[in-house]
Design goal:
- The complex is a heterodimer of chains A (about 450) and B (about 180).
- Chain A has helices at about 25-35, 40-65, 80-105, 115-135, 145-150, 165-195, 200-210, 220-250, 265-290, 300-330, 330-345, 345-360, 365-370, 375-400, 415-440, 445-450.
- Chain A is an all-alpha fold and about 450 residues long.
- Chain A has a single domain (about 40-450), classed as Formate dehydrogenase/DMSO reductase domain (Formate dehydrogenase/DMSO reductase fold, Up-down Bundle).
- In chain A, helix 3 packs across helix 9 (about 265-290), helix 10 crosses helix 11 (about 330-345) and helix 12 (about 345-360) packs antiparallel against helix 14 (about 375-400).
- Chain A is globular and about 70 Å long.
- Chain A starts with about 20 loop residues before the first helix and ends in a 14-residue tail after the last helix.
- Chain B has 2 domains: about 10-55 and about 135-180, Alpha-Beta Plaits (2-Layer Sandwich), CATH 3.30.70; about 60-125, no CATH class.
- Chain B has a 4-stranded antiparallel sheet.
- Classes of the chains: A mainly alpha (about 450), B alpha+beta (about 180).
- At the A-B interface, helix 1, helix 6 and helix 8 of A face helix 1, strand 2, helix 2, helix 3 and helix 4 of B.
Chain lengths: ~450, ~180
């Protein structure tokens, strides 16, 4: 509907890609970056920051393996903390990529085409960062293989399939695999474009291998389009299931503050909300730095801000319902949990999250705000903070004061917690920068499909 | 992969077009003329091109359905076997074969197997990876991934003859016609 809706004529919207582009300019604009010999100074500087933080991650994890998980701050009663907060945070961020590439494809939203490739890259790198936390929380990641995956081992042990934690392993590993496959399949024709344009023999053969010898025949394209549509159809229920299953890690337990039926939809909405904020965080500087304003237009920025607002409102509804359920349940434990959240020792985290996720996002109602990339960029970073705090609130304030006052306790993260968390941000940054430099960051052939050159009139009504 | 040694064998004749519309119009004429061994090449997917030239649809969706069902069966069988037969654990007297708890891993494996079938199926049915193909011998074909559209009539076609086919392709509005070496 994006272009043909009845409203389009009335609302004068920015086009999906700015006028003046044809097939050649699209190819040129996008393919130039991976094929050029230049490494811009800004890129090198950011890469150094990313690598330093990733080095810190390496150190933090190395020390963890040496000493054990005691170096982290979580302990009874708060047995889960940064490890799962960061896991849920990263996994959630990934959701926007799949939403853009799968759900918006099924809805024929043409504006997704310029941003789908790097949103998918974001998904994959976010899932990689997420996976680090549970794997290293096991303390002995080399043993996690038989704890997590069902394979015949010499001890004759099998995982407990009735546990949400094992469901999570299946959901997240399927999500990671399908996302990588979808991403790669989406890149095959563009790899052929790079192969055909590369001047250097080395680049031509590397991109040639990655393109698998793609030659864009009618038969190829037909199967390709069918496969892409099916992958989108499969990724849609998958992405909705992943955060649902993540929420089961909490909802299936009996802890007040976790045992709530609203968790699955509330988590999925929160994931998409955080994910779109992250896409904005990445897209705003990238389009400016690489001069992609004609392909990633204000229309994209505006639409993403609108989705952020919509999902943010769903999340706000979730917060309201959590409070309502706690009161309406009549259970003293549920009521105390909510009181503790709002007025207990971690009240600052609850009210900060409400200030960001419920109050601040109301600014997105105003077109002026949605068209100001500086304000949006700052807001998107704050939303990242807000969603991190949401997981902090759900996890820490539910655990720190449970049923027996004698077992209450406070949770304080250690330097290793922070080093691991910021380290994963560095790892993400590093992977993302490498992606920007060596892979076409915008899907070349999909953007071309928006141009008149690829349109066919005929007796087929497509 | 370009081979420099001259060969007498021809893969066929290739015609170049400027737009999707032009290549589709030409493909209609080529098919109407009675050619059967034809292939179209384009930088973007053109649904009509496959409908006109090949008039068949891929079996991929059926393979994906089979893959998905296999995944579901695998997931359920794995869990049933591990939790009921091989390694039963009595936790609070709950039933071993509680199928409800097996839903999620079965669901995930359904999607996993189906998605892998879709991706690998597409690649394999397309005959990829295939580093060499005669069409790459034409220098202009490098533009097929950028902004030009091509039609190839293969020499295996019973109606193929070098000069006549080239002439015919020129008459369909081609911007250029090239011989494709084997």
């Amino acid at each position: 509907m994006a272009n043909h809706g009845p409203n389009t004529a009335l609302r004068e919207e920015t086009p999906v890609i700015l006028p003046g582009h044809d097939f050649e300019t699209v190819t040129e604009t996008v393919a130039e970056i991976p094929l050029s010999k230049r490494f811009p100074l800004g890129w090198i500087g950011m890469l150094l920051i990313g690598l330093s933080l990733a080095g810190m991650l390496h150190m933090a994890l190395g020390y963890l393996v040496l000493k054990g998980i005691g170096i982290w701050g979580n302990n009874v009663p708060v047995g889960w903390a940064f490890d799962i907060i960061n896991f849920v945070w990263w996994i959630g961020i990934g959701h926007a990529g799949t939403l853009i590439s799968a759900i918006l494809l099924l809805f024929k939203q043409q504006w997704r085409m310029s941003i789908s490739r790097f949103a998918e890259a974001m998904t994959i790198f976010a899932v990689i960062c997420a996976a680090i936390f549970p794997v290293f929380h096991t303390g002995r990641p080399w043993l996690a293989a038989y704890w997590l995956f069902p394979y015949p081992n010499t001890m004759g042990l099998w995982p407990q399939f009735k546990s949400p934690l094992i469901w999570d392993v299946f959901a997240v590993s399927t999500y990671a695999t399908v996302s990588i496959v979808f991403w790669y399949v989406g890149m095959i024709p563009d790899m052929a474009t790079l192969r055909d344009r590369a001047v250097s023999k080395v680049k031509a053969s590397i991109y040639g291998m990655l393109s698998l010898g793609w030659r864009g025949s009618a038969r190829h394209w037909h199967r390709y389009e069918v496969a892409t549509l099916i992958l989108a159809g499969l990724s849609t229920p998958l992405v909705l299931s992943v955060h649902t299953v993540v929420s089961f890690d909490f909802a299936v337990s009996v802890i007040p503050g976790w045992h709530a039926t609203i968790f699955p939809p509330y988590f999925v909405a929160g994931a998409i909300y955080a994910g779109f904020a992250m896409v904005l965080t990445l897209a705003i500087p990238v389009r400016r730095f690489y001069g992609m304003e004609s392909l990633i237009t204000m229309r994209h920025i505006d639409n993403m801000a609108k989705i952020t607002l919509a999902t943010g409102l769903m999340v706000s509804y979730g917060y309201a319902m959590e409070a309502f359920f706690a009161w309406y349940s009549g259970s003293p434990h549920e009521r105390f949990m909510m009181w503790n959240r709002m007025f207990g020792p971690y009240a600052w985290s609850y009210w900060t999250l409400i200030a960001i996720n419920m109050v601040m996002i109301q600014l997105l109602w105003f077109p002026k705000v949605r068209h100001n990339t500086t304000v949006l960029f700052v807001m998107s970073l704050l939303i990242g903070v807000g969603m991190w705090l949401e997981r902090f609130v759900i996890i820490v304030t539910s655990l720190n004061r449970d049923f027996i006052p004698a077992s209450w306790g406070m949770y304080y993260p250690t330097q290793w917690d922070f080093m691991t968390f910021f380290g994963t941000i560095g790892l993400f940054l590093t992977l993302f920068l490498l992606f920007l430099r060596f892979v076409p960051m915008i899907s070349i052939f999909e953007v071309k499909m928006l141009l008149p050159q690829s349109k066919v009139k005929g007796d087929h009504a497509h | 992969m370009h081979t420099n040694e001259p060969t007498n064998r021809r893969h066929g004749v290739m015609a170049e077009f400027e737009s999707a519309q032009a290549v589709v119009d030409a493909a209609r004429k080529v098919m109407a003329h009675g050619f059967t061994k034809v292939e179209g090449y384009s930088p973007v997917p053109i649904e009509e091109l496959n409908d006109i030239i090949h008039q068949t649809r891929t079996v991929l969706p059926k393979l994906v359905l089979a893959g998905g069902l296999t995944g579901m069966a695998t997931g359920f069988a794995l869990q049933y076997w591990a939790s009921v037969i091989e390694y039963p654990m009595n936790i609070g007297g709950r039933p071993q074969a509680s199928w409800i708890t097996f839903i999620i891993p079965s669901y995930e494996l359904t999607i996993l197997f189906a998605a892998l079938t879709a991706a690998i199926g597409m690649i394999v049915l397309n005959g990829l990876p295939q580093p060499y193909h005669p069409v790459f011998n034409v220098d202009r074909f490098a533009m097929a991934s950028s902004d030009k559209f091509f039609l190839v009539v293969e020499s295996a076609d019973p109606k193929f003859d070098q000069a006549g086919t080239s002439e015919f392709l020129r008459s369909t509005g081609a911007k250029g016609v090239y011989d494709v070496d084997e």
